[in-house]
Amino acid sequence: MKATIKNLNNEAVGEIELSEAVFGLPHRTDLLARMVNWQLAKRRSGNHKTKGISEIRGTTKKPYGQKGTGRARQGSIRSPQFRGGATIFGPVVRSHEHDLTKKVRKLALKTALSAKVAEGKLIVLDSAAADSHKTKELAVRLATLGLTSALIIDGSNLDENFAKASRNIPLIDVLPEQGANVYDILRRDTLVLTRNAVEQLEARLK
Hints:
Layout: E1 2-6, E2 12-17, H1 20-23, H2 29-43, H3 102-118, E3 122-125, H4 135-144, E4 150-154, H5 160-166, E5 172-176, H6 182-187, E6 190-194, H7 195-205
Parallel strand pairs: 1-3, 3-6, 4-5, 4-6
Antiparallel strand pairs: 1-2
């Protein structure tokens, strides 16, 4: 499987062989969904909380006699049926994390990369480097590549000027190779990998 290598001026500068083991896997929606759910669950703060009856301020006195009033029997004004009372089985502070094996996570990342190749939405760049940290210059270059929504993944060492220049461009994300993840790959329309990123991803995922 071969891909054309382009530069930031949208000119072809060579070809690169993509590994079938990383970029040629069949599409599996179930696997991608499991991985995205796992990532988003880890991100949740889990700090939602309601008060139980023991946490409500108020008297513990029985509001009125058990019998003879003609009303329903009540034992506490902090009960959930009263205004300002407790919430039964409400949310409590907890972690939403759940386990997903390394093998599944690795396979999901390869599946996400393969999905972009199958859709024709993978671009390989010679390098992701900029002469200046100015956003305007980089925005013009990305426009020549036709990128409006893209995740750009470079090697382990990002070019500082390129990273700074891309920060203010809407729907453009830049990550180092070690930060590549399924959620960010799927949430942007186009995946852009540098030559270094392809080599490092293949070495890590094979």
